[in-house]
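Consider the following input, taken from an annotated entry for Transcriptional regulator LysR family (Vibrio maritimus).
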Amino acid sequence: MISIDDMMVFVTVVRYQSFTKAADELNLGKARVSQIVSRLEDSLGSRLLNRTTRSLSLTDFGARYYDKCLTIQDLANEANSDALNASTDISGVIRVSTSIGSEAHINLLGSFFTAVPGNSARSNRERQLQQSD
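Applying the prediction step yields:
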């Protein structure tokens, strides 16, 4: 099975037009990057890159595959961004019990709701009675 990681190594090689620069960017050895691209080509049954000692160029198939890999990369980034944003959204009901005269809480909650919309509050005011001895 072809991994997305291998596809992204290929994208990096094409972006930098160099196995060496891609390896540096990915913190991998040049031989490892070359091996990954070769394995990808074997899995696909088609050459992606024309290699010479001085340059790299995409084959016709490689250019089409590269475009699809970029689309996959964009979708993966969007999915990750959406997931991170969804997990950091704060929502729910805030329940506050206050004594009479604690109106400062109302101001604090107002500021909170302005900064973090999509929440609600319930107040339960309690009258505190002091017993005289």
